[in-house]
Amino acid sequence: MSLKNICNMSFFLTILCLCVNSLFSHAADTISANQSLSGDQTIVSSGGIFELGFFSPGNSSKYYIGIWYKRIPEKAIVWVANREIPISNKDSAQLRVLDGNLVLLNESQIKIWSTDLTSTASNSSVIAVLLDNGNLILREKSGSNSTLWESFNNPSDTWMPGAKIGYDKRTKRGRFLTSWKNSEDPAPGLFSDEFDPNGTQYVMMWNRSKQYWTSGSWDGHRFSLIPEMGLFRIYNFTYVDNENESYFTFTRTNPSTITRFNMDVSGRVKQRLLMNNESWNVFGSQPRQQCEVYAYCGAFGICNQDSLPFCSCLPGFKIKHDNDWSLMDYSAGCVREISLQCENNGSTSNEKNDKFLMNSNLSLPLRSQLLTSGSIGECEGACLSNCSCSAYAYDGSQCSLWNGELFNLQQLAEGDGSGKDVYVRLSASSSLFVKSKNDKQIVIGSVVGSVVAVLVILAIVFAVVFSRRRLMAGKSKVVEGFLVAFGYKDLQNATKNFSEKLGGGGFGSVYKGTLPDSTVVAVKKLESVSQGEKQFRAEVSTIGIIQHVNLVRLRGFCVQGNNKMLVYDYMQNGSLDSHLFDVKKSNILKWKTRYQIALGVAKGLAYLHENCKNCIIHFDVKPENVLLDNEFCPKVADFGLAKLLGGNFSRVLTTMRGTIGYLAPEWISGVEVTAKADVYSYGMMLFELVSGKRNTTNSEDENVRYFPYWAASVTIEGGDILDLLDPVLEREGDIEEVSNICKVACWCVQGDASVRPSMGQVVQILEGVMDVNLPPLPRWLQVLAETPAHSALYS
Ligand SMILES: *[C@@H]1O[C@H](CO)[C@@H](O)[C@H](O)[C@H]1NC(C)=O
Ligand SMILES: *[C@@H]1O[C@H](CO)[C@@H](O)[C@H](O)[C@H]1NC(C)=O
Ligand SMILES: *[C@@H]1O[C@H](CO)[C@@H](O)[C@H](O)[C@H]1NC(C)=O
Ligand SMILES: *[C@@H]1O[C@H](CO)[C@@H](O)[C@H](O)[C@H]1NC(C)=O
Ligand SMILES: *[C@@H]1O[C@H](CO)[C@@H](O)[C@H](O)[C@H]1NC(C)=O
Ligand SMILES: *[C@@H]1O[C@H](CO)[C@@H](O)[C@H](O)[C@H]1NC(C)=O
Ligand SMILES: *[C@@H]1O[C@H](CO)[C@@H](O)[C@H](O)[C@H]1NC(C)=O
Ligand SMILES: *[C@@H]1O[C@H](CO)[C@@H](O)[C@H](O)[C@H]1NC(C)=O
Ligand SMILES: *[C@@H]1O[C@H](CO)[C@@H](O)[C@H](O)[C@H]1NC(C)=O
Ligand SMILES: *[C@@H]1O[C@H](CO)[C@@H](O)[C@H](O)[C@H]1NC(C)=O
Ligand SMILES: *[C@@H]1O[C@H](CO)[C@@H](O)[C@H](O)[C@H]1NC(C)=O
Ligand SMILES: *[C@@H]1O[C@H](CO)[C@@H](O)[C@H](O)[C@H]1NC(C)=O
């Protein structure tokens, strides 16, 4: 009597049976002959880490055999068996060992997936075991340990610790990762991460043919084009090359950190880290930018790095398969809203049927054809005469033509000079051209329309300005979004005519003030703001939206004539510099407090860089701009001012004494300044937090060591780490924490911006989520140390 028949006998027995089933599904890590997996049955690795069974991704109603982390609520599928052939009824499908293979039988008991070994093993001697590292293996039940087959050698999209990604010289086959087709379909997609034995490197390929990324070659420790790989102490990569195979594999340095690499549907390899045992956090992606992924948006799609979603269609085109786009598969791209006639019936192109629409600032793949052409008209004619020509560009003497579908288009930012004006072929009946038919009417209409509109707007502006004047004279406040618009008189009164100065700087002085409701505020009188009132208000309100516990809150502003002021929450404990460099017995910052300040500032900056809608670079991170509230919780001040001050900002910054020590080298070298400039300044500030002294040696004494160099040497070469601590702390500090902060500081002040960590990564290290590796000694520190007059540079 089979198990099934027994179950049918009675209700009682059914319950019993369920219990037996669930016992089976929880206890076993093995499928042996005569056992099969159906429905919700699973096997679990012996340590309870991984689970194997049927799953259906997202909202799909299709089922696949997969492996996932058992205890992690956010399900992460690390391997899929039947990637291409799903089943629709998991109760009548079976995963079982048959003829020495592990096979998946569909509802009609037809084999749709198999390990495909041509062994002579009998049914009963082979078993499938799920191991605690996530590897599913097939081996002889008894006797030899040799593994007949393993999922690690047949990876899907995820690279697990211990798995080998490389090249099998015996089968002459690569082992590589392939993306899922979309977020609900594990079938192999267009993107793969492969090993290139010639260069001892990894490459990413589109459709297995077009390379769009490389790791750079392996030097025994890291890949040349992923310098930041050294930052975290998570992985130990090794390269193996023997007569049978060559491959990379890695182990985890800290077994309690759970991370995985996968080739995401986006065509980027993402490193994910498990947070709080429940959700996955992406902490690294290659390529770094989404639009670097070849043809990510498909044919006639445009990738725009500064917008979400990244993909859109060229004007005059529509999404080919809406459903795919909603599942994050953009590869099918776009098609013309109105198809070209010459395409439809194969007739030769008719000049009247098609027109060209200009798209600005596009980057394009290599053109198909280059002609020397006297005029843009000739260039257009050349494209028009050939139905397969879909776009042209003209640069004054040369005419570039593109044939067939356009892939890998990228919308470049304004001011990125490398983009081109590209004319794309559309049907002349496209709605985009229709308006040009009655140009004149439209022109007249719009002129009349805009005159009326201008008059109306002027009237409104007058009314608003007038009423605001009245309001201000009456000391009232206007609330704009999150912010209060103060009148000049209000702030003059609140600050007792600007009598209590809290501080000054390149951007203006700060005064203490008390509002009528007795709230204490800090009023910053801005200097050198040349913006008009409207733009100023717009910028200020974007700053006002930004709120985070580690950022000083902007309460309001005042703009009246040339007076522009910002009103902030008042911070009782002033700025960090006064506690570090101006020490009295009463205000010594204990080590614990310093560590929390370092962490808080990192969180504030990470929020500015990563979480806000538009990345905000602070540009002026220094102890003066870190304020402390009554509980010494740090708040970053003066963010967003770069935009307010526009071009004046960098001039003010670079001519300001004192700030120079915090300026990243790219300010001077002329390389693009990014958020990594803040990371550099933050690193310099960390050194000061440890030493309690400015990173300068104004003293004539040649024996005074330049602290960052000294700290870096002790950190890297070993030494008494507590020796580095501010003398007022009398060596009271946690060695581990001091060492951690010094390592982070060294990583942050690397000359090459790409090697510096992001502020988000700094937070993870300081919170103890990630271990940090020993940093390399920044080259400029080395150079500085060898130059006797180094102090001149940084005073
Ligand atoms: C499933 O569908 C619902 C409704 O259409 C949607 O809100 C939800 O986000 C979908 N879930 C996934 C994982 O796609
Ligand atoms: C099972 O697979 C076979 C072969 O692929 C197919 O012909 C059959 O329709 C499948 N059965 C079901 C119920 O899908
Ligand atoms: C394995 O079992 C299947 C059915 O259970 C049977 O058809 C097949 O002949 C067996 N193979 C061997 C090598 O015993
Ligand atoms: C599998 O079942 C068959 C008959 O159903 C039996 O002869 C064989 O011994 C079983 N094998 C194992 C390994 O239990
Ligand atoms: C099989 O593996 C076990 C544990 O890994 C080991 O102790 C044993 O010696 C191995 N046996 C053979 C025959 O290799
Ligand atoms: C590696 O180099 C050899 C000879 O130089 C060449 O035949 C082979 O195609 C190359 N392999 C790859 C993956 O580029
Ligand atoms: C990918 O390459 C295959 C041939 O290798 C080709 O048939 C297919 O059309 C290509 N896919 C796309 C999306 O271009
Ligand atoms: C990295 O792995 C290799 C080989 O597995 C081992 O020899 C080496 O000691 C490991 N290094 C670290 C830092 O764990
Ligand atoms: C290569 O494969 C052969 C046969 O499978 C095996 O005997 C040998 O030990 C393998 N060499 C290495 C270095 O693993
Ligand atoms: C995560 O789980 C492990 C073991 O399951 C446990 O030891 C650890 O404390 C958990 N960590 C958190 C942050 O919940
Ligand atoms: C084919 O193209 C010609 C020329 O543009 C047009 O007149 C004709 O109507 C088209 N025929 C069909 C069947 O679309
Ligand atoms: C293209 O870039 C130029 C400057 O490089 C800019 O003036 C223009 O507005 C941009 N056009 C679009 C559509 O972004």
Tally the helices: what do you get? 20
Spatial order of the strands forming the largest sheet? 26-25-33-29-34-31-32-30
Q: For the record, what is the CATH homologous superfamily label of the largest domain?
A: Transferase(Phosphotransferase) domain 1
Helix content: 25-40%
What can you see in these coordinates?
With 795 residues, the chain is an alpha+beta fold. It has 5 domains: 1-154, Orthogonal Prism (Agglutinin, subunit A), CATH 2.90.10.10; 155-288, Agglutinin, subunit A (Orthogonal Prism); 301-427, no CATH class; 484-569, Phosphorylase Kinase, domain 1, CATH 3.30.200.20; 576-791, Transferase(Phosphotransferase) domain 1 (Transferase(Phosphotransferase), domain 1, Orthogonal Bundle). The chain has 20 helices and 43 strands. The strands form 10 sheets. An 8-stranded mixed beta sheet has the order 26-25-33-29-34-31-32-30, with helices on one face. Strands 35-36-40-41-39-38-37 form a 7-stranded mixed beta sheet, with helices on both faces. It has a 4-stranded antiparallel beta sheet with strand order 1-10-11-12, with no helix packed on it. Strand 25 (301-304) and strand 26 form a beta hairpin. The radius of gyration is 33 Å and the shape is globular. The termini are far apart. The site of one 2-acetamido-2-deoxy-beta-D-glucopyranose has 2 residues, from loops.
Q: Tags for this entry?
A:
about 800 residues; alpha+beta; Agglutinin, subunit A; 5 domains; 8-stranded mixed sheet; 7-stranded mixed sheet; about 25% strand; globular; disordered C terminus; binds 2-acetamido-2-deoxy-beta-D-glucopyranose
